Amino acid sequence: MGRVSWPTRLRDTGSDPDPRFSFANERTFLAWIRTALALLAGGIGLEAFAPELAVPGLRQVLAALLVLAGVATSALAFRRWLRSEVAMREERSLPPPRIAPWLSYGVAVIALAVFVLVLVANL
């Protein structure tokens, strides 16, 4: 016997939720993917177009952190969608987004670092 695909395993779990909730879950998934793309674009843009910062090499580190945040967000978006879909099918509460605090605080720290370094570079 071969492996059962994940869509089959999902459909065999619980019962079908209201399609409106599944579509809302899908829109949330797509929002996480857009966020991942924005982080990737921000990291690439920082490396490609920003001037050297006050500390040599720091621009590359900040750009890499943004790209890695985009990779993590993209990788975890599907897991988030699947966990939410299973919870709805089993009529359980939706799980909290585990990456949200890391993502929001991480982006805030990187943005603050870029702001300070650009400010110092222009003094």
TrEMBL record:
Keyword annotations from UniProtKB, A to Z: Cell membrane, Membrane, Transmembrane, Transmembrane helix
Protein's membrane topology: Multi-pass membrane protein
Chain ranges of the DUF202 domain: 20-85
InterPro entries with a match to the protein in the record: DUF202, IM_YidH-like
Origin: domain of life: Bacteria
Pfam families according to UniProt: DUF202 (PF02656)
Transmembrane segments: 29-49, 61-82, 102-121
Compartments it resides in: Cell membrane
Principal subcellular localisation of the protein: membrane
Identification of the protein by name: DUF202 domain-containing protein
Organism: Actinophytocola gossypii
